[in-house]
Amino acid sequence: MTRIKKESSITSMAAGMLPAAVVKSGETVVFETMDAFGGQIKTADNVFSQIGWDQVNPAAGPLFVEGAEPGDCLKVEILEITPGDKAVMILAPGFGVMDMPREVSYIFDIKDGQFIFDDKIKLKVNPMIGVIGTAPAGEPVPTGTPGPHGGNMDTNRITTGSVVYLPVNVPGALLSLGDLHAVMGDGEVCVCGAEISGEAVVKVTVLKSFNAPLPLLIAGGEVITVSSAPLLDDAAKTAVKNMHEFLVHLGLDKEKAAMLLSLSGNLRISQVVDPLMTARMEFPLWILEEYGIRL
Asked: Which residues have a Cβ under 8 Å from the Cβ of 180 and sit 6 or more positions away?
């Protein structure tokens, strides 16, 4: 099985990068990942300002997938995520929704599938991938920024068992991923989740004709459109409109699709702390199946 080591990590996604590995469509790959701070925060004395935003969210890669050409779709099946045994969180003035009075770092243990917050609170670990994306065709995009290529979507539905559909903008797709979290709530409101190193095992498949708004997820019995924009309102509206257009493309009546989105769809916030805000629209797969549609 192909393995991409964390030493191959990048801090921007860009066309023309030399690949860390080359695989055929349908192969399985292991990505070793650093935490969001590149492993540089080891004690409470190591603070974010010593690292800087330009070094945040290193992603392992890129991976060149043979046969992937611009206009195709890259299907990424998340087979397994294995977290490390330590998690990091940071607080700093001017970061996140709450204005914190001081800059500080916290180190937490992960034991027996639990995130040890303190002597009273233990949270069940649910490892997720914060950064997963392909190279954009135009200017490089920092791994800390989300966009149409995927990137730092910080969407907690990207976990074991999920399927992520990403656009192929350049030959080989150049897939990179990283920024694993042990636990993260919707919004990531203090600017980070429980940031961890670890490994992600994925299967990559090139799809030659997949007409859908990308990035797109299938997770937990739902199809999910994801959108990022400078303003959360715009990201949310685009996620909804993309889902509506997708449902109509699949064969649903335009008016029925709109009503079903209000009845059974869920508009959610993925994150509000990155350079672009990310929202998602979730819709139950079982409704599509009742209309004879299977994704």
From this structure: 33, 35, 81, 83, 127, 128, 129, 130, 195, 196, 197, 198, 200
Look up residue 126 and give its two tokens.
């649910």
Read off the pLDDT band of 175 (50, 70, 90).
very high
Q: Give every CB contact of residue 119 below 8 A, 6+ residues apart in sequence.
A: none
pLDDT, tens digit, 9 for 90 and up, residues 236-249:
999 999 999 999 99
Helix 254-264 vs helix 232-250: angle between axes, to the nearest 10 degrees? 130
68 by DSSP, 3-state: which? Answer: coil
List the one residue out of 64, 70, 69 whose CA is nearest residue 27: 64
Q: What is the pLDDT confidence band of residue 52, given thresholds at 50, 70 and 90?
A: low
Prediction pTM value: 0.96
Question: Which residues does 26 contact at the CB level (< 8 Å), separation at least 6?
Answer: 203, 204, 205
Chain segment 269-282, per-residue pLDDT in tens: 999 999 999 999 99
Cis peptide preceding 62, ω within 30 of 0? yes
76 - beta bridge partners?
Answer: 164, 204
Q: Are 202 and 29 in contact (CB under 8 A)?
A: yes
Q: In the numeric block, which tokens belong to residue 135?
A: 């190279």
- 50 near 21, Cβ under 8 Å? no
Q: Phi then psi for 289, rounded to 5 degrees?
A: -65, -35
User: What is the torsional sign of CA 16, 22, 28, 33?
Assistant: negative
pLDDT in tens, 32-46: 999 999 999 988 888
